[in-house]
Amino acid sequence: MDRLDNTIRPYAWGSPTAIPHLLGIEPTGEPQAEMWMGAHPGAPSRTERGTLVEVIDADPEKELGPAAVAKFGPRLPFLLKILAAGAPLSLQVHPDLEQAKEGYADEERRGIPVDAPHRNYKDANHKPELICALTEFDGLCGFRDPLAAAGLLDDLGVDSLKPYVDLLHAHPEDAALREVLTAILTADPEEMSRTVAEAATACTHLGGAYAPYADIAHHYPGDPGVIAAMLLNHVRLQPGEALYLGAGIPHAYLNGLGVEIMANSDNVLRCGLTPKHVDVPELLRIVRFRPSDPGVLRPEASPDGEELYETPIDEFRLSRYVLPEAGSAHDLTRATPQILLCTAGSVRAGEHDLTPGRSVFVPAGEKAEVSGTGTLFRATVVA
């Protein structure tokens, strides 16, 4: 079992205080957006044996187990994060596995450098993800019913939004949503900037259900993503609740602290709320234009105390243990690799004492007994 030393990423949208508060350290004054736990080449966790990439590369079957290597190859197929949003992230979608393979192969054929700002596909993998709230956590997830979106836009009283309102009343629903998002993202930038400014003023005045969009507009003045965001469901998670974000589902995180797990990929198609490249034709190919309930997940408890967040994919499996008594012990040994992350209290994992924000990597099959009083998240795979 290896204690992990993890990198914190200082993205501009990050909270300056949430991760330091969790870790019990002084803030630096700079944004601290994500703490990465895993073997992503961009910021692999460090151990006494080397980076987690080096540890796994040295003996994949020993570290990951034969079943995981046979199913996913000689790499850790997930990335675990603590995410601290102090401002809205970009509005985005992720491709499914087939789309990722096609897109990556196409950009390779065209000779687009992998680090080019207009490159969409950094790898040939999909990127399903799960976010579990540690504090109240606000986000956007999936399309609203088009008539509900039409009502939200109409009540702003902005004349330039009337064509979108009319389009949202058309049928079928998927075609209506596609046409409106296309119109928003291809509108004249100066006209759209004025529309967003008027909408932002109206959102600020109305408050209530419009408050999240006023805040988004404050951070991204003039961005067409402000209007696109109003097509989506607003969700407020309570601690312990989660969202699963599958392929093609537009989403954005707005504010809060959470544990995030995802397939090990960098493939993102952006819809707005960003200065980065927005590839409208490719985005429209990936987005699934259907209204959907956000589907807030609550963990399913088992007799041994494990609380599992059910998802339909195998690259990751996230669960948690809420340990109420220091004397009780749980055997978490599995034939697959694990990362154990403490988020509250004090937990003993093998020979390691874990306080909030501290984590360990457990190789496949290695004895993993935990005890203490606190909350422990367990990330592994289904193999």
What is the average per-residue confidence, as pLDDT, rounded to a whole number?
96
Q: Helical stretch count?
A: 12
Q: Label the structural class.
A: alpha+beta
Poorly predicted regions: none
Radius of gyration: 22 Å
Biggest β-sheet: count, sense, barrel? 9 strands, antiparallel
Please estimate the helix content: 25-40%
Residue share in β-strands: 25-35%
Distance between the termini: 20 Å
The tally of strands reads 21
Shape: globular
- What oligomeric assembly is this protein in? single chain
3D structure, described in words:
The chain is of the alpha+beta class and 383 residues long. Helices cover 28% and strands 29% of the residues. Strands 1, 14, 15, 16, 17, 18, 19, 20 and 21 form a 9-stranded antiparallel beta sheet that branches. Strands 2, 3, 6, 8, 9, 10, 11 and 12 form an 8-stranded antiparallel beta sheet that branches. A hairpin with a 7-residue loop joins strand 15 (307-309) and strand 16. Helix 6 (146-154) runs antiparallel to helix 7 (162-168) and helix 9 packs across helix 10 (211-219). The longest helix has 18 residues, at 189-206. The mean pLDDT is 96.
